[in-house]
Amino acid sequence: MFMSKDLSSVNVSIIIPHHNNKKILKNLKYYNKDMSAVVNAPAHDHHEDHGHHHKQTFISKYIFSFDHKMVAKQFLITGLLMGIVGIGMSILFRIQLAWPEQSFAIFEALLGKWAPDGVMTPNIYLALVTIHGTIMVFFVLTAGLSGTFSNLLIPLQIGARDMASGFMNMLSYWLFFIACVIMLCSLFVEAGPASSGWTIYPPLSALPQAIGGSGMGMTLWLVSMALFIASQLLGGINYIVTVINLRTKGMSMTRLPLTIWAFFVTAILGLVSFPVLLSAALLLIMDRSFGTSFFLSDIFLDGEVLSHHGGSPVLFEHLFWFLGHPEVYIVILPALGITSEVVATNSRKPIFGYRAMIASILAIGFLSTIVWGHHMFVSGMNPFLGSVFTFTTLLIAIPSAVKAFNYITTLWKGNLQMNPGMLFSIGLVSTFITGGLTGIILGDSTLDINVHDTYFVVAHFHLVMGISALYGLFAGVYHWFPKMFGRMMNKNLGYIHFWVTAVGAYGVFFPMHFLGMAGLPRRYYTNTYFPYFDDLADINVIVTVCAIVTALVQIVFIYNFFSSMFYGKKATMNPWKSNTLEWTTPVEHIHGNWPGELPVVYRWAYDYSKTNADGEYVIKGQDYVPQTVPMQENEEDLHH
Predict the structure, then answer these.
(1) For the chain, how far is it from start to end, CA to CA, in angstroms?
(2) For a tag site, which of 127, 275, 416, 535 has the least CB within 10 Å?
(3) What is the helix (H) or strand (E) element at residue 355, kind and residue range?
(4) Which of the 8 DSSP states describes residue 495?
(5) Strand 23-30 and strand 300-301: pairing?
(6) pTM
(7) What tens digit of pLDDT does each residue of 523-537 get?
(8) How far from the centroid of its chain's Cα atoms is residue 167's Cα?
(9) What φ, ψ does residue 13 adopt, rounded to 5°?
(10) 3-state secondary structure of 442
């Protein structure tokens, strides 16, 4: 098959042998150099047929869709629904922590036999913590964030008709959906859902008979995660191939928006690290069902010595955290990429230090794979090895700080447009810094030992990873909602959502630092048996009240999201006056994204408020220059 790199339109003939030796000749017409033009191109002129491709049924358009824009919506809505479940669980166990051993009708209604007379049992508390962590980290912040915005933005911002493989894209979503269903089904198992923490450490996860949640609930957790990992790998391969192969004419790697760089490196990280968790899960299944001893040794259960010998739970920790720490950056990098785009657009300024931002994304991606040992400082690690992991962990603070300072410098003296997307982006910069500072303490092996497994750790990673990533998700939804649904979200409801969430999130996680420094351990379902912690009870009540208020205000967002989808003000083609390619596509979604030829790129994505030598805007009366506008004579190419 011959492809021209230079011609914008090439007729390609493919001869397909049939089973009865007949030959079928199909003429396909491709628009761009990389075959991004089409899936199922008809023989007549594709140029005029993007608007009314072939008649799609409801199932092919909305359910098993190959269109990246529809797949993005599927990921987003599924992720939001899983988020409601995850946040609901956190409210249940926060109520338990604030008012331990008290009876609540809501416990009896929702938890049934696990809360006799409305009093939560220790087993279901641990199960709620486990499933909450799993849902939020993997199903909301990984798939909900990456799955949505990688799918939506990669083809649109690089100038491609669609993803490299529409089928793999569709398959990626449906594997994710099945994983969600199986994870939710595990909540209804007779013996209870998985109960060994979201990190599923052996032996609780490796011995089906250990506790109730170690049985069928744990098996379903492992099956669900195996499907989830398969989904992420399919998606990741697709994102990488699309970015490398399907960029439009003129879209060099140094003209890519920072969103695409973030999604690209995130996909590579997922491809490198998720298979390691899959191998850990498979070995765990072997230990559980086939009598192997990868993670088990010298186990006594009810006075009986089990036959397992020679395994090590620390081996599991290494396998889990080799995914677990890159996972933190798989979660936060897309949010940082979204923030780069939203902050630059709404500051009406070029992003500060574009190449330094790319370098910091690449540095974070590399360093994130060599820091996993800082989760294991109290596992009996050799102190010298601990010092090596301390060094690499503190090293990753440098590219992270580059990003934080560059955001602040971009905001400095900008013409700030304070819409909800911008507010959430600024909120991300705040939580990324406050959460990151405590990481310096936890990354130091000598300091970490004092606060390891306390609420200090919970506060740290919820701020730097959880809240920051959620703010990135919200910023992305407010900013690209017009592109996804052709309508605007209600700005006033967005303001309410931001301010209550911002105050509430700090109200939840800031006091937790003090609980941790006082030595309060995490995952204890009550502390009433330890008089030493009695004075901390009031702080737990404050944290829970803030958590309930913050959770309730998310109803405002959900209402705004679904009502704006149908009744929101109709969006214009480029409501934020942005430079990137997605705002050159029609408001109405069409097959192939652009109705005619693919756009040609002449400049980077951040020419905001750019002036000529005489002080006039490059385009008269307009403070932005889209990427499709050719460079003028004597105009400076800013990012070189």
Answers:
(1) 37
(2) 535
(3) helix 354-367
(4) H
(5) unpaired
(6) 0.90
(7) 999 998 899 999 999
(8) 22
(9) -105, 130
(10) helix
Can you tell me the distance from the alpha carbon of 572 to that of 195, in angstroms, rounded to the nearest whole number?
Answer: 49
Angle formed by the axes of helices 148-158 and 313-347, to 10°? 50
Task: State residue 308's pLDDT score.
Answer: 83
pLDDT (tens digit per residue) in 555-586: 999 999 999 999 999 999 999 999 999 999 99
Q: Is the dihedral of CA 475, 478, 482, 484 positive or negative?
A: positive
Specify which residues 29 forms β-bridges with: 11
Q: Could you tell me how far CA 391 lies from the centroid of its own chain? A: 27
Give the H or E element holding residue 27.
Answer: strand 23-30
From the centroid of its chain, how far is CA 126?
A: 25
Spans of the chain, pLDDT less than 70: 1-54, 638-640
Nearest to 589 by CA among 50, 77, 167: 50
- What pLDDT is attached to residue 18? 42
Return the DSSP state at 497.
Answer: H
pLDDT at residue 639, as a whole number: 61
Q: Which two tokens stand for residue 135?
A: 């849902």
With a CB cutoff of 8 Å and minimum separation 6, the contacts of 311 are 202, 287, 292, 293, 294, 295, 296, 297
**pLDDT value, residue 81:** 97
- Cis status, amide bond into 203, omega within 30 of 0: yes
Tokens of 122: 């220790």
The SS3 call for residue 435 is helix
Q: Please state, in angstroms and as integers, the Cα–Cα distance from residue 80 to each residue in 425, 508, 558, following that order.
A: 19, 21, 8
The three state secondary structure string of 171-207 is: HHHHHHHHHHHHHHHHHHCCCCECCCCCCCCCCCCCC
Residues with Cβ < 8 Å from 17, sequence gap 6 or more? 23
- For 50, the 3-state DSSP assignment is coil
Distance of CA 535 to the CA centre of its chain: 37
User: Which H or E element spans position 10?
Assistant: strand 10-17
Q: Using CA atoms, how far apart are residues 23 and 203, in angstroms rounded to an integer?
A: 60
| Residue with the two structure tokens 């994710």 | 176
| b/e per residue 573-589 (b: at least 16 CB within 10 A) | ebbbbbbbbbbbbebee
Structure tokens given for 183: 């994870």
- To the nearest 10°, report the CA torsion of 405, 410, 413, 414: -150
d(CA 366, CA 332): 14
| Alpha-carbon distance values, 459 to 190, 342, 432, 456, 508 (Å) | 33, 27, 12, 5, 8
